[in-house]
Write a structure and sequence with these properties.
about 110 residues; alpha+beta
Length: about 110
């Protein structure tokens, strides 16, 4: 099983927190972090449109488009295992927002 934390930082970069969790174990699962999402919403975080309910656990056979769009790739036809590797390497960072994805193993190692 692969586990990722979805992090958000305030526009000024002075505060960041885990807002959600993404897991892969033959299916993808996303759910919001109960405490982190409340704090982040108070500081301006807007829920991902694909995940409008903070109490819902979302599942899919394929990586959710919210996160799939964050993968830099040369080939459009990559499997889910390759997506895990690319998310880990790039952290899914975009220049247009303050969200990134951190593999839970990387956080444990202190990366």
């Amino acid at each position: 099983m692969e586990k990722f934390n979805i992090l958000w930082s305030r526009y000024d970069g002075k505060f960041s927190c885990v807002v959600g969790h993404l897991e892969y174990n033959d299916d993808w699962t996303f759910y919001y972090d109960e405490e982190g999402i409340k704090v982040a919403q108070n500081l301006g975080f807007i829920l991902f449109p694909e995940f409008p309910d903070i109490n819902e656990i979302y599942t899919s056979k394929k990586l959710f488009s919210t996160f799939d769009l964050r993968i830099r790739r040369n080939n459009q036809n990559i499997n889910e295992e390759e997506k895990i590797h690319l998310l880990t390497e790039s952290e899914g960072r975009l220049e247009t927002d303050n969200v990134w994805i951190s593999n839970e193993k990387a956080l444990i190692k202190g990366r």
